[in-house]
Amino acid sequence: MSSTKPNGASGFGNLGKSFQEKVLQALLTDRQWATQFIEVFSVDECLEPIYLKLIANKFISYYNSYKEFPTMDLLITIIKDELSSNSDLVAREQCHGFLQKVIRSEEMNDLPWVKEKAFTFCRQQLLKKALSESVDIILTDKYETVVDIMKTAIAAGMASSPGHDYNNDIDARYSVTYRHPIATGIAQLDEKKVMAGGLGSGEIGIVVAPSGVGKCCKKDTKVLVRIKVERDLNGNIKPIKL
């Protein structure tokens, strides 16, 4: 990320240590948000306290290795192992105090604003860095590289779905999908191999035909409609609902 920022701060330093702790607290407690946030988040550039950097780096490193975030119990074990040979008692106490605060879920009401603020800031910094790199590359006439850099920066942190995984989503592969289709009334279209009974909920049907085959093109176009009727006992004619 860019190392220059108003007030001389390169990360969250100007927002205070409390804000930085809340960012890490949000990272540890909201796994879905964390998956997006780590794509734009630079630990060393955004966080200042050493104990926050240590916890964040271990948390993200575990995800990069196993594609899953560690549980709180496992994270505590990892931090203890990291600090077992470290004589910095202050760092140990700070890590322990912060993790206990997260476990107790203190000040969770502040996190929605913190997450929005942190995500916006990190994404802006990532885009600034991409623009800065692009300026230098443009001078070398490597325009395709500039496009790739900007696409990567813009896509970072965007919500995405992995879709259907053939090997892992076994249950989904064998699940039954109920469409509850409504028949169009045209037998050829309602056949199983065509529309499987008609249009289902949320599906859109579009009728397309070439010119000269009887499409309505004006509000006063006359249309011939055939209605099936029946007579009641008094001889009155009434249409039959299809």
Overview of the molecule:
The protein is elongated and about 100 Å long. The protein is mostly helical and 242 residues long. Mean pLDDT is 79; it is low at 1-9. It contains ten helices and two strands. It has a domain at 6-153: DNAb Helicase, Chain A, CATH 1.10.860. A hairpin with a 5-residue loop joins strand 1 (229-231) and strand 2 (237-239). The longest helix is centred in the middle third of the chain and has 28 residues, at 111-138. Strands 1-2 form a two-stranded antiparallel ribbon.
From the structure above, extract its key features.
242 residues; mainly alpha; DNAb Helicase, Chain A; two-stranded antiparallel sheet; 10 helices; 48% helix
Helices and strands in order:
Elements lengths: L16 H13 L1 H7 L5 H4 L3 H17 L5 H12 L5 H15 L7 H28 L4 H13 L14 H4 L13 H4 L38 E3 L5 E3 L3
Antiparallel strand pairs: 1-2
